Amino acid sequence: MSTYRQSYREAIALTGPVLPLISFFGRLPLAMCQLGTLLLVAETSGSLGTAGLVGGALAAGQTVGGPLLGRAADRRGQRVVVLSATLLNAVAVTALVLAALARTETLPLALIAVVAGASVPQIGPMSRTRTLALAHRGNADERLIGTVLSFEGTLDEVTFVLGPALVGLAVAVAHPAAALLVAAALLAVCGTWFALHPTASLLRPAARTASTERTRLPGSVYALRASMALQGAMFGASQAGITALTEDLGMPEQAGLVYAAMGVMSAVAGFSMAAVPARIGLSTRWRAATAALVVLSVPLVFVGSLWALYVVVVVLGVAYAPHMITIFGLTERVVPGRRLAESMAWLMSGIVGGQALALALSGRLAETSGPPAAFAVAIGAAVLCAGLAWTVRPRAARGRTVTTPVTTADAEQATRDAEAPSDTARST
After folding, report:
1. What is the C-alpha to C-alpha distance for residues 181 and 66, in angstroms, rounded to an integer?
2. Mean of pLDDT values over 53-77
C-alpha cells in the first residue's frame, strides 16, 4: 500500500499539485455541456427532436474538432492552442445559451452548437500529453507511466459522473441555462489557467521537416481508436437501456443515479490500476479488460428490477476504466511523440462520437423493442472490442521524444514556479 501511495505522490509531483486540480475543473464543462444543451433546448423549444438535433450537432463538433486541436497543439504548442480554444468555447457556449433563450431557429442554433463542440479545448488529452512528457524527460519507469495514466483516467471518470450531477443540481435550483453558463465560466477560468501554467512552456513543438510531415501512424493506432469509440458506444447504449428500463419500472428519476453508480465504480477501478504489477503487459491488460466487458455486460439483457440493475451496472463499471486507461497507455506507446496530443484527442473524440451515435440508435431500439434491445447494442460493442484486442498486436513506435529537449532542471524550475505565488500575489 505504501508503494501504491508513493506512486501517486510521484505522479502528482511531476507537475505539482495545482495542475491536476486545474485540469479536473477544466474537464467538467465537457461533461456538463451535452446534457445541459439537451435540457436547455428541450425547455426553450418544447421539442425533444430539436434538442436531440442540437445535442447531436454539439457532439459532432466535439468529434471533429478534438483531433484538429490536438494536431495544432503538437505543431504549435499547447499554450496558444488551449488559450485560443478556451476563449472561443466560452463565447460559443454563452452564445448558445442566449440563442436558445431567444428561441432561435433550429439551423442557426445547431451551427452555434457545432462551434461550441469543436472549440472544446481538450484539457484531458492535453493534460495527459503534458504529464507524460515530463515523466519521459525524467526517465520514468513503466510503473510511474502507468500511474499517470491511471490518475488521468480517474479524473476523467469522476468528471463524467460529477458533470451531469451538477447540471441536474443547476436545473433543480434555477434553469438549464444556468448549468451552461456555469460551464462557460468554469472553462474560461480553468482553461486559461491551464494554458498559462508554467508546465505548458515545456512542450515546445518539434521542428517541422519533410520527414515529420510524412510521419505515418501504425495500423494498430486505428484499432485502438476504434476500440475507444466502441467503448463510447457501450456508454451510449447503456445509458439508453438504463433510461428505458427505469421508465418501464415507473422510476425514471433513478436513471441518473444508476448511471452515476456505474461511473463511481469505474473511477475506483481506474484509481486501482496503479496497483497492477508492471510485469502484466498492456496487451494482456487490453485483452483481459475487453473479455471482462463482454462477460460483465451480458447480464444486462436479463435485468428486470431496479436492485438487479444497480448490481449489474456497478459490476460492469469495474471493466470500463481499465479498458480506457489501457487504450491510452497503448496509444502513448505506439504513436510518435510528435503526434501524441492529436492521438489522445482522437481517443476522447471517439468516446464522444461513439456515445452519441449509439445513444441515438439504442434509444430508438429501446422505444420499439424494449430495454434489452439497447443493452444488446452494448454487448455487441463489447464483443467487437474483444475482437480487436485479441487480433491486433500494438508495437512501440520509434521517435518517442514529444518535443524539443528540456532539461530536468527546466522541469523542476517550472514546477517550483507553478507552486510559488506570483509577484502580484506577493505584493498583495
Report:
1. 22
2. 90
